[in-house]
Each structure stands twice: as C-alpha cells, then as structure tokens.
Amino acid sequence: MTLSNANVRAILNQVKSPSGQGLIDSDLVRALTVDSDAIRFVIEAATPEEAQALEPVRQAAVEALKAQTSVPVSAVLTAHGPSKPVPSLKVGRHPTPQAGPQSVPGVKRIIAIGSGKGGVGKSTVSSNLAVALARKGKKVGLLDADLYGPSQPRMMGVSGKPKSNGNDMIEPLSAHGVTIMSLGLMVDPDKAVIWRGPMLMGALQQLLGQVAWGELDVLLIDLPPGTGDIQLSLCQKTNLSGAVVVSTPQDVALLDARKALDMFKTLKTPVLGLVENMSTFHCPNCGHEAHIFGHGGVADAAKELELPFLGALPIDLDTRLAGDSGTPIAAGDCDMAQSYANLAQRFIDGGIV
Ligand SMILES: Nc1ncnc2c1ncn2[C@@H]1O[C@H](COP(=O)(O)OP(=O)(O)OP(=O)(O)O)[C@@H](O)[C@H]1O
C-alpha cells in the first residue's frame, strides 16, 4: 500500500517515545520524506545518550511502517550534541535601539507577505509558496510574524520549543525543506498574546536577529493582516526586498488590500506583486466552476495600479485540509501543488527570488 505523508505521521505517532507521547507529538522526527520508492526519516535526540536509549523506539517505528507498506523504510538516530541550555533568549521584551534598517546575516532577500483583510489565505499562500520554492531548489526560510495568531506551526506541522545553539541564538525548526520560526513556538499555545506595540516589535526584532537562520536565498515573512504596528516596524526596521499582497477577489477584501498597498507605498517598501487566492471553485462532483468571492478582481486591481499580477489560486478543500494536517498541499503532486509550483516559478522568473 502507498502511504501518504499524513498516513506515515499518524503511524509514527502511534509509536510511543520514552515520555509516553507519540513520536510526532514528542517532536523527535526530522527530515521525513515519503516517496513512492522509499520512506526515510531521522529521529533526533538531544544527547548521544538519549539517542542510544531511543534505539528500541527506532526499531518499533520502522516495524510499524513496514507492517503497513512494502516500500523500504529507513530511519536513523542522531543527537544534536551534548545537552544545551534552553535559550536564555526570552521572547517578549521591548525593542533595543538600532541604527537603521537591518539585514539578516546570510539571508539574500526578505519578502513580506501581507494582506489588508484577515482570513484571505495569506498564511496558506506563505507556507505553500515556501514549500514550492524549496522544491525548486531555493533555500527558504519562513518567519511567522503573525504574532497575535501564529498559524505556521500548525500549517507546517512543527511543534516543540526551538533550542539554543549555545550562543544566545535560537535554532529554527525545519519541515518540508523550509527553515521555520514562529512566536507560536516560543509561547504557550493556549495563552493569548496580550502585548502592546513595543513588546510586539521587540519580539519581531528577536525573531529576525536572534534566530540562526543560516544561508537563505529568501526569507518569507507571513505578516498579520492589516496595517498595524508590526507592518510599520518591519518595513522601517528591516531591509526588505519588497512585499507581496494576497487578496481574494471580493470587493471588501480588495478595499483592504488597497489600504495595505497604500501603506507599503507610504513606507517606500516596493510591492513585488499581487496574488489572488480563493479565486474559483471547481465542483469535484459536476466540474462546474463557481466564483464564490468573485473572479479577476485582483488581476484588474494590479493592472490599474500598474503592479505585477503573480497568479490566481482556486478555493480548494484539499488545500484547507492539508494546511490543517501540517503538510502543505504544495508538498504533494496534485493540481494545486502544480499551481504553487507555477507561482514559485513566476517568482524565480521575475527575479523576485
Ligand atoms: N485556496 C484556498 N482554498 C481553501 N481554503 C483556503 C484557501 N486558502 C486559505 N484557505 C483556508 O482559509 C482559512 C484562512 O486561511 P489563512 O489562515 O491562510 O488566512 P490568513 O489571511 O493568513 O488569515 P489570518 O488573517 O487569520 O492571518 C484557513 O482555514 C485556510 O486553510
């Protein structure tokens, strides 16, 4: 039987780690690849001693998968070094003064992904675009700057507190070929973030400057919706290559998108292009095409404002389900994955990435 990435994760989560949690929930699995000819993953422990103790768990995980598929399974144990202290870095402080807009060492381009209105799919587009660019060979980072409602950990399927690299820098997490960091990984997920502007700006500064992003072709920043403190702070304090605005074709969303575009113009952040999300709906039963939120409005707005139109993405049940399951649709090989691959190619061909 051919197993999907989600099937494999579910099977691995049935295998208990020494903490009593499933292997996925206890955040021990790294670099999971599920291909038609092989399933591979790494079980990463904190110390070599812990790795040794996990050998029976590794064997149990391999056996559990082999019981469900004839595809060869390989799993290796690694330790990321001797025990390290938890980061002394505590996210949630006021910003420190900085001379001017900052770059992130090793990161070639920083692109903010914004929207005027909430819920138009900005986080979905950010995560899928990140995965699609990574599949095209780009080194991609994804920073979830939606500090009030961070959704990237769930959409990218990462959990567990990031660790310190011993130099007061946080090691980001990685999934689907993308390097990820989110405030959602640093704070209690059940507690609402109730911070005022300066605290949010301090957190953003830390997520950019105190995360060991490494060498990246591009860092995508998933902004919160609207035109608030975080957008202002990011545009003024960071050397952005530019911003991409996501909108649905609906009039109210477009009205808000125009406000976001106006904000970027005022802050002199170049707008690299517009993306239309939830563009059309293809009924899976009868093939009828419906325009639930309208159609073509974003392309028209781009034309009017003389901005590049980067593409239209349909409204699609599997996209939503994939986001909820932690494996973005762009990681697979369906039509939607191809749409995201095309979008990523347009970013590359247009010299955006
Ligand atoms: N093309 C699509 N087809 C179907 N569902 C989608 C699509 N794009 C996004 N969604 C779903 O719509 C919901 C909102 O999407 P998402 O969280 O990406 O929006 P957002 O603009 O980042 O929202 P927020 O304002 O909360 O940050 C999610 O449940 C997501 O799975």
Automatic annotation (TrEMBL):
SUPFAM superfamilies: Fe-S cluster assembly (FSCA) domain-like, P-loop containing nucleoside triphosphate hydrolases. GO terms for molecular function: 4 iron, 4 sulfur cluster binding; ATP binding; ATP hydrolysis activity; ATP-dependent FeS chaperone activity; metal ion binding. The keyword Plastid does not apply. ATP binds at residues 116-123. Transmembrane segments: none annotated. Residues 84-104 are annotated as: Disordered. GO terms for biological process: iron-sulfur cluster assembly. Residues 6-67 form the MIP18 family-like domain. The keyword ATP-binding applies. HAMAP family: Mrp_NBP35 (MF_02040). This is Iron-sulfur cluster carrier protein. It comes from Marivivens niveibacter.
